[in-house]
Write a sequence for this structure.
């Protein structure tokens, strides 16, 4: 922060730094594997949501014919898996 | 910088590509008879065309130049925008947001927000998007004319600017969304051939993937994180893992895929709800290959043209084209860059025209108590708006697009409103208690909080904290919507029918009514 920073943002800095300062210290101290768990977890959770929690009829509503290849739950898993592999590879 | 210089074969390839695109777009004119044909392709698009179009509209010449530059500077973490920033968000969009937009039969996202909240939310949201997309049109045109055609090829940038504007404007003006989508399919093929051609030749020259890794890691300690996707929270670079997972993965990407008219308009044109969802998933899968075309050549450039340095990293792809590609392939690669640019411009043009007509002109007429425009008149106004936008954005391309850090500039602009827009969209669908006043307060105060976070210095470890800005403005807007909604009168059940999760999934009567609306 410099002298040229407008007064209003100097005030907001003085308030918000007490919220974000400790948060930055905590997050900066987390080990690297936590990042991988959150990153890969996002893909896995999306797959679980579609595959387990959503109704099959809702997921595939309006499909042209009933076949495993038109099941969008399979499409979801097939399009997510390469990402999981990539995030595990580039750790 | 040394000018590339094109072989006559390259010029023929670029010329054939541009004329071919124009003719295909004009051919699609025969399918446009009314406003619905122009804006949502008469609801006849199959999943594969939607998927292709989403990918091509999303990826622009900006990505080819700026993402490659970011990969040169920061390593593979730049690829997060097409991996973490795509697939999870597209799954959420496909199964949470798209079915609602599709079933309610709306043209635009602001129109949906208008039905769910009120006309002020609709108008404000449309205005924000129209202004943003107009700025993006100007940025994209200037980037191609100045950074690509003038800097690399030595062409007159003003002539280049108007040639691109004319070709894209004519086919979007004539053929509407049908022309946009079907030219996108051709453009995707050209882009993938050019992009993967550059990647294959670059990797061949470097000596393969293992050689690329060992050479970069041997360059010094500052390159040790170049093969890590998720970097520590306190990294000095712009992509810490906390920002990537929360700011990008959960907010910016979801808002972009669910609330961006350019993307969602393709699914609104689907022939069935299954095609709309399948198109999103197919597009996400195709999009996951984009980093291979745009980020990996940036890494190869680190080995092949190390003299560039971080300051000149955005020149990585143009330099690679210059030194790597033979005549013919060079023309194809430039055609790929034009394809990326033209598809982004045409997509943005069609969407801005749609929102302007439906949500701005439509609302103003409603407030003035005048009858809505007829189908035929709507089509004429949509076309006139398309022509006006392409001309005016070309006129303002230089002052708006001439920015030093283009990528950060675009992301920061998006981060000002994406968090609050997602908050009101999400609560509007899953929480029946959200009210019109709650939505309006969430949108206005959420955008205000993003401004405060952006301009208050020293809150985050990064110089450009747009990822955190998006996350925290989203959280703040959620809280505001909940508090204001609980303090205001509940919306009537009849208004919410067919617009919230519970009525669409659980209420059989509402589902039947929606089915009849779609089939009619």
């Amino acid at each position: 922060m410099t002298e040229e920073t407008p007064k209003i943002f100097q005030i907001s800095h003085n308030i918000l730094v007490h919220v974000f300062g400790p948060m930055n210290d905590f997050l900066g101290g987390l080990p690297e594997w936590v990042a991988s768990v959150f990153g890969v977890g996002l893909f896995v959770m999306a797959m679980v949501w579609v595959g387990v929690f959503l109704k099959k009829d809702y997921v595939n509503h309006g499909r042209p014919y009933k076949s495993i290849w038109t099941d969008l739950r399979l499409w979801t898993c097939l399009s997510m898996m390469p990402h999981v592999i990539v995030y595990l590879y580039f750790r | 910088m040394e000018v590339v210089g094109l072989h006559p074969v390259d010029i023929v390839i670029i010329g054939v590509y541009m004329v071919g695109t124009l003719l295909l777009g004009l051919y699609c004119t025969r399918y446009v008879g009314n406003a619905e044909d122009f804006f949502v392709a008469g609801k006849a698009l199959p999943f594969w065309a939607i998927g292709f179009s989403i990918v091509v509209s999303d990826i622009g010449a900006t990505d080819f130049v700026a993402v490659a530059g970011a990969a040169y500077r920061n390593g593979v973490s730049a690829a997060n925008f097409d991996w973490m920033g795509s697939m999870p968000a597209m799954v959420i969009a496909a199964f949470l947001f798209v079915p609602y937009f599709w079933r309610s039969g709306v043209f635009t996202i602001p129109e949906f927000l208008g039905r769910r909240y009120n006309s002020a939310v609709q108008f404000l949201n449309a205005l924000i998007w129209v202004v943003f997309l107009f700025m993006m049109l100007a940025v994209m045109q200037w980037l191609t004319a100045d950074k690509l055609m003038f800097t690399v090829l030595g062409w007159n940038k003003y002539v280049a600017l108007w040639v691109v504007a004319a070709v894209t404007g004519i086919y979007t003006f004539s053929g509407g969304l049908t022309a946009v989508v079907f030219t996108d399919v051709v453009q995707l093929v050209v882009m993938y051939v050019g992009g993967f051609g550059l990647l294959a030749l670059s990797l061949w020259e470097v000596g393969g993937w293992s050689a690329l890794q060992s050479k970069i890691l041997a360059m010094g300690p500052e390159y040790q994180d170049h093969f890590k996707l998720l970097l520590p929270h306190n990294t000095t670079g712009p992509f810490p893992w906390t920002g990537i997972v929360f700011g990008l993965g959960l907010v910016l990407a979801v808002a972009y895929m669910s609330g961006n008219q350019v993307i969602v308009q393709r699914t609104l044109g689907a022939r069935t709800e299954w095609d709309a969802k399948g198109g999103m998933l197919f597009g996400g899968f195709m999009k996951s290959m984009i980093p291979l075309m745009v980020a990996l050549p940036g890494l190869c450039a680190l080995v092949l043209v190390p003299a560039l340095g971080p300051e000149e990293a955005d020149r990585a792809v143009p330099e690679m084209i210059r030194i790597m590609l033979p005549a013919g392939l060079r023309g194809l690669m430039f055609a790929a860059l034009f394809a990326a640019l033209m598809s982004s411009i045409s997509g943005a043009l069609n969407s801005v025209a749609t929102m302007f007509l439906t949500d701005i002109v439509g609302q103003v007429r409603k407030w003035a108590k005048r009858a809505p425009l007829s189908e035929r008149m709507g089509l004429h106004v949509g076309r006139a708006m398309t022509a006006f936008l392409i001309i005016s954005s070309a006129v303002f391309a230089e002052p708006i697009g001439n920015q030093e850090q283009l990528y950060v500039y675009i992301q920061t602009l998006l981060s000002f409103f994406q968090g609050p827009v997602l908050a009101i969209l999400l609560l509007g669908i899953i929480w029946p208690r959200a009210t019109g006043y709650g939505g309006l307060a969430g949108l206005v105060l959420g955008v205000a909080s993003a401004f405060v976070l952006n301009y208050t210095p020293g809150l985050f470890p990064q110089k450009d904290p747009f990822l955190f800005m998006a996350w925290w403005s989203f959280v703040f807007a959620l809280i505001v919507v909940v508090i204001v909604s609980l303090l205001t009168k509940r919306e009537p059940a009849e208004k919410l029918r067919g617009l919230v999760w519970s009525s669409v999934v659980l209420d059989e009567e509402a589902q039947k009514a929606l089915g009849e609306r779609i089939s009619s």
